[in-house]
Amino acid sequence: MDKAALAERYARVKAMLPGGVVLVAVSKTRTVEEVQALYDLGQRDFGENYPQELRDKQPLLPPDIRWHFIGHLQGNKVKYVAPFAFLVHGVDSEKLLDELDKRAASAGRILGVLLQVHIAQEETKHGFLPDELRALCATAPLQHRWPNLQFRGLMGMATNTEDQARVRHEFHALALLRQELAASGAVDPRAFTELSMGMTGDLREALAEGSTMVRIGTAIFGQRG
Ligand SMILES: *Cc1c(COP(=O)(O)O)cnc(C)c1O
Q1: Which domains are present in the chain?
Q2: 25 FRET partner, CA 20 to 30 A, in 6, 49, 180, 216?
Q3: How far is ligand 1, taken at its centre, from the CA of residue 220, in Å?
Q4: CB distance 217 to ligand 1 below 6 Å
């Protein structure tokens, strides 16, 4: 591992972020040594996609890391992340909310979650449809159904395209939906403030549309092998 190159890429990414935007360093497939090296440069928020990989890495790294789970989570894997995750970004079904709530309760903690919204023009991206979330929020405050979860905002992945206008349009729709839901009475508007959007390829568009959390892997660690 080239620590000088890592430090340079990390500094370049941080320089692009306005104050207040949280940088989640996406460390999936990276070694414990690489994560530790970035930690030593001051990074504390890390994102992982694979539950078992996160479960195995977490005990080997400093306890003050805030671990974000950013991947698609299956119900039977929730137990690997619920005991210590700082924030679960990709929550895309009521069944998964049920499971997260149950596991948070048995771990004796309140677990922060972001609801993932399907904003891309691609079949492969997960997430609630905007109208599904509207319907969910029209029934009752989410906190009543899932008392061990804290609803912190929305997460979305834009279409993987060179068409920057399309990407901005999708992020813009996500930002508007967050505002709408925050005002609906279904969530605590003081907590429902986060917009997790933007990766290496669409960071600029996400920041322009008001992202509060960017999930960056490649631009920090280099190409995944
Ligand atoms: C891998 C991944 C990222 C980071 O992607 P890069 O292009 O390496 O920055 C962000 N979000 C999710 C959900 C990912 O799976």
Answers
A1: 3-221 (3.20.20.10)
A2: 180
A3: 11
A4: yes
Does any ligand 1 atom lie closer than 6 A to the CB of residue 49? yes
Q: Using most ligand atoms within 8 A of CB, pick from 199, 203, 213 the residue to mutate for ligand 1.
A: 199
Measured CA to CA in angstroms, residue 26 lies from 50, 61, 66, 103 at distances of 11, 15, 12, 24
Q: Is the dihedral of CA 195, 200, 205, 208 positive or negative?
A: positive
- What gap in Å lies between CA 186 and CA 19, rounded to an integer? 29
Ligand 1: which atom is nearest the Cα of residue 28? 1
- Return the percent helix, strand and coil in the chain, to nearest 5: 45, 20, 40
Give me ligand 1 centre to Cα 206, in Å: 13
Query: Dihedral of CA 140/141/144/146: which sign?
Result: positive
pLDDT tens, residue by residue, 120-147? 987 777 899 999 999 999 989 999 999 9
CB 219, CB 203: distance < 8 Å = yes
Could you read off the pLDDT of 166-219 as tens digits, one per residue? Answer: 999 999 999 999 999 999 999 999 999 999 999 999 999 999 999 999 999 999
